[in-house]
Design brief:
By secondary structure, the chain is of the alpha/beta class. The chain has 7 helices and 9 strands; from the N terminus they run H-E-H-H-H-E-H-E-E-E-H-E-E-H-E-E. The protein has a single domain, classed as Rossmann fold (3-Layer(aba) Sandwich), CATH 3.40.50. A 7-stranded mixed sheet has the order 4-3-2-5-6-9-8. Keywords: Signal.
């Protein structure tokens, strides 16, 4: 009698482990197939940094910063009010310029702890959410900007200041255009006058390095900004579908 009970116990144990692993896998961000970035595909406007051997290596590099306990403590405390105030100024300008409204459904890409989301909600855009590799509930959900976990045409407005962290800039932009509704607006803050930190995956040298990636949108505005080391704001408007 003891042996059948042991076998049943072992069977249930292995079944439980299988179900747990399956659940964790289903909750992890969808990863794009890794293709080693080809330096020849870069241009004078944007350069992909060499040395990434796999997509797991790329994710580990990004998570080294995002999961750093000291940085997360700083982002959630000392930096919080300062960053929310700066983002509030940016979003209020976009709203006053007609690119954003209180009825917009908004997404912040690479939002870390969610300062951008808090700023959007303070401006009056209550239907706002952030996305990052590491979630920060209730403001930020888990997701990979190379393969957003959202349906097509989900948002009226998308903002990001992490374009330099994209290993595949064309996929980064393609996902924005996929999840943005026709007539929707995408605002990117990028650095042209200086290089990013050691966690950046690409270096941008001209606005054309971004604008040529948007296939279904028009450049609506370019202006200088002072946003935590980023100096240029690019605003795109997705084309409406022809009837």
């Amino acid at each position: 009698m003891a042996k059948p009970m042991v076998k049943l116990f072992l069977f249930l144990l292995f079944l439980s482990l299988f179900l747990i692993l399956s659940l964790l896998r289903s909750r992890s961000p969808q990863q794009p197939n890794f293709v080693s970035p080809n330096p020849s595909s870069s241009s004078l406007q944007i350069q992909i940094r060499p040395g990434i051997r796999s997509y797991d290596d790329y994710l580990k590099l990004q998570l080294n910063k995002t999961l750093n306990p000291r940085l997360r403590r700083v982002w959630a405390t000392r930096d919080w009010d300062r960053k929310v105030a700066v983002f509030h100024t940016f979003f209020r300008n976009l709203r006053d310029s007609g690119f954003l409204s209180n009825n917009s459904r908004a997404l912040c890409i690479g939002a870390r702890m969610g300062q951008e989301v808090a700023a959007l909600r303070a401006v009056g855009i209550s239907d706002s959410i952030g996305m990052d590799l590491v979630p920060a509930p209730p403001l930020v959900v888990r997701g990979d900007f190379h393969a957003q976990p959202f349906n097509n045409d989900s948002f009226d407005f998308e903002f990001s200041n992490v374009f330099d962290h994209a290993l595949y800039p064309e996929r980064f932009v393609r996902e924005i255009e996929r999840t943005l509704r026709p007539g929707g607006v995408a605002a990117l803050h990028v650095a042209l006058a200086r290089r990013g930190d050691r966690y950046s995956a690409n270096d941008l040298y001209a606005v054309d390095g971004v604008t040529t990636l948007f296939k279904n949108s028009e450049l609506a505005r370019v202006r200088n900004v002072d946003g935590f080391g980023l100096d240029t704001e690019l605003v795109f408007k997705k084309k409406k579908r022809r009837r």
